[in-house]
Each structure stands twice: as C-alpha cells, then as structure tokens.
Amino acid sequence: MIAIIDYGMGNLRSVQKAFERLGVDATITSDASAVLSASKVVLPGVGAIADAITELKRANLVDAIYKTIESDKPFLGICLGFQALFEESEENGGTKGLGIFKGKVLRFPESPEYVVPHMGWNDLSFKKDVPIYAGIKPTDYVYFVHSYYVACDDDSIVATTTNYDDVDFCSSIAKGNVFGTQFHPEKSQNVGLKMLQNFAEL
C-alpha cells in the first residue's frame, strides 16, 4: 500500500486518482502509524511552505517522514512536498524545511519576459539514470505550477533540470530510495502516469 501524506494541503485526491488509474492501492492518511506501515510514501503539496511545515509538525508526521526515509522505503515528494525536503526556503520571509537535503528554495527573479509563477508544460534535461524515469524521453513534457525553485547544494542528487526565466533549476532529485519532483506527475497525463507506475513498481 502507498501512503499519501495528508497534512491539510495539496491536491491529494488527484494523486490518489492517478494511482487508482494504474490499479495501485494508495491511501490518503494523516496517521503517522499508517505512514510508517506503508510500503511506499508520497508527500504531495500545494501552497505555502511555512504552513506545510507547521501542519506536518502539528500532525506529528515529521518523525514519520524521517523514519520512512531512513528505512529505505521508496519515498516521493511532489512540488511543495519536494521543496520541503531541503534546508530552508525564501518563502514567507524565510522558513526552515525538513533538512533532509542541503539546499535552499529560491523565488524566480522578476522579469518583463517571464510570468511568475512558472505554470504549464516544460521539458526535462536528464542528468542521470533514475528508475522512476524508465521509458521517459527527453522530448516528453511535464506540468509545473510554482513560483519557487530548489537550488540544490549537491549536484550528485540532481536527476533533472529545467529552464525557466533564464534559470536552469533542479526540477527533480533522486538519492537512494528518495525521489522528488518539482513538477506534478499526477497532472502530466500519460508521461506522469508512467512515472508513478515506475515508482509503484520499485
């Protein structure tokens, strides 16, 4: 069973529906014990990171996230759930993240040529082989909605980069059992479903 962490933020049902389309058992839960007993865990999210960290702490889910990652179970952070894996964010005047990876979340620069948030379809530049991207081509597009991006300190964990607003930003990471995507696989049609299927089959 895949546990989709519910901390009161994000498009949880759309993530669950994507797994259901694949015939995969995925349960939305805010119960730390259910998260710990799951075979795989997804941390989705849409919104402000300060609220996300506050709600994760309030629901006693932070420790469950750390223990899941330490247990080598497959773990996937999506969008805000991806950004939360890093040390801190510029958002909300500065917010501490979960600190699982070194790096900072920055806002896209303002410019007359680009709209912030970065919203819509964009491609991925692959930096290394990652199991959840098996069968995905460089010409495939995925769906983004975000105003902030991850500046990762460790290049070795960067799985893909994407260019927007003249910034080549880290659009996904992979290290051991942990994966994170700035884009939304659950909104990326057949390409995203293939990624989620690959994750479910790990």
Verbal overview:
The chain is an alpha/beta fold and 202 residues long. The protein has one domain (2-200): Rossmann fold, CATH 3.40.50.880. 25% of the residues lie in helices and 34% in strands. The chain is built from 6 helices and 14 strands. The chain has helices at residues 12-21, 32-37, 49-58, 62-70, 80-83, 189-200; strands at 2-5, 26-29, 40-43, 75-78, 86-89, 95-96, 101-107, 118-123, 125-126, 141-146, 148-152, 158-164, 167-175, 178-181. A hairpin with a 2-residue loop joins strand 13 (167-175) and strand 14. The longest helix is centred in the last third of the chain and has 12 residues, at 189-200.
CA distance, first residue to last residue: 12 Å
Helix content: 25-40%
Rg over alpha carbons: 16 Å
What proportion of the residues form beta strands (DSSP E)? 25-35%
Biggest β-sheet: count, sense, barrel? 8 strands, mixed
- Class computed from helices, strands and strand pairing: alpha/beta
Write down the overall mean pLDDT: 96
| The CATH fourth-level homologous superfamily | Class I glutamine amidotransferase (GATase) domain
Q: Which CATH class applies here?
A: Alpha Beta
Shape category: globular
Question: Main sheet: which strands, in order across?
Answer: 2-1-3-4-14-13-12-9
List low-pLDDT spans.
none
Q: What is the CATH topology assignment?
A: Rossmann fold
Please name the CATH architecture: 3-Layer(aba) Sandwich
